[in-house]
Write a structure and sequence with these properties.
It is a single chain. The chain is 42% helix and 9% strand. It is mostly helical and 239 residues long.
Length: 239
């Protein structure tokens, strides 16, 4: 074989490999571009809203019926209701309003279901308790056994804006003090859910004030498309 023939054979071999690599590169690029537009399916939802709303169906009915969701101040939050309302707007700590948008039964929580002892539950921000309950309900409505997702790449994206549960001027029992920091940390919101259900995907708490829940949904969709998780719980809580 002459040197010219050998060089031609090497060139053809190189071109074959380059063509193969180019086809593979194009295939991967096409798949990456398709993933950026992959539809995301919402398979289950849960909610608590003012007006006694406890399910997505009840929220739809409230809106469709045009009902008023405002209610008097709740009696289960340890508030001084007699001193709360005041006609003078300059009175510190007083409210000109007599009603607002409040969630019902926020003090109720099945701590045992999530493996949480009663003292720790008392020290937990109700927003943490709310997210645990709604994650369970959302999975059930999706037809998924909440306990079946342990050790799966399920992500949690939680939106939160207020963290003032432990700022109330109350006497904290000594046996509860040790739970206050974790129970009232915004960063723990997503981690609490991930730990309780055994999720192994990303766990992120977002605070972008009023847009927090919307941002969590955006980040959850992005994480799903990038393959960072196979299922995502996304939403927010404000109590």
């Amino acid at each position: 074989m002459s040197n010219e023939t050998a060089n031609d054979e090497k060139l053809r071999d190189y071109l074959r490999r380059a063509t193969t690599d180019l086809r593979e590169t194009r295939r991967r690029l096409r798949e990456a571009e398709e993933l950026q537009h992959e539809p995301i399916a919402v398979v289950g939802m849960g909610c608590r809203m003012p007006g006694g709303v406890r399910t997505p169906d009840e929220l739809w009915e409230l809106i469709a019926d045009g009902r008023d969701a405002m209610s008097p101040f709740p009696t289960d939050r340890g508030w001084d209701l007699d001193g709360l309302h005041g006609p003078d707007p300059d009175t510190p700590g007083a409210s000109l309003a007599r009603a607002g948008g409040f969630l019902d039964d926020i003090a109720h929580f099945d701590a045992t279901l999530f493996g949480i002892n009663p003292r720790e539950a008392l020290a937990m921000d109700p927003q943490q308790r709310l997210l645990l309950e709604l994650t369970w309900e959302s999975l059930e409505r999706a037809g998924i056994d909440p306990l079946s997702l342990r050790d799966t790449r399920t992500g949690v994206f939680a939106g939160a804006m207020y963290h003032d549960y432990n700022t109330r001027p109350i006497q904290v029992p000594e046996d509860v003090e040790g739970y206050l920091m974790i129970g009232n940390s915004a960063a723990v919101l997503s981690g609490r859910v991930a730990y309780a259900f055994g999720f192994q995907g990303p766990a992120v708490t977002i605070d972008t004030t009023c847009s927090s829940s919307l941002v969590t949904i955006h980040l959850a969709c992005a994480a799903l498309r990038r393959g960072e998780c196979t299922l995502a719980v996304a939403g927010g809580a404000t109590v």
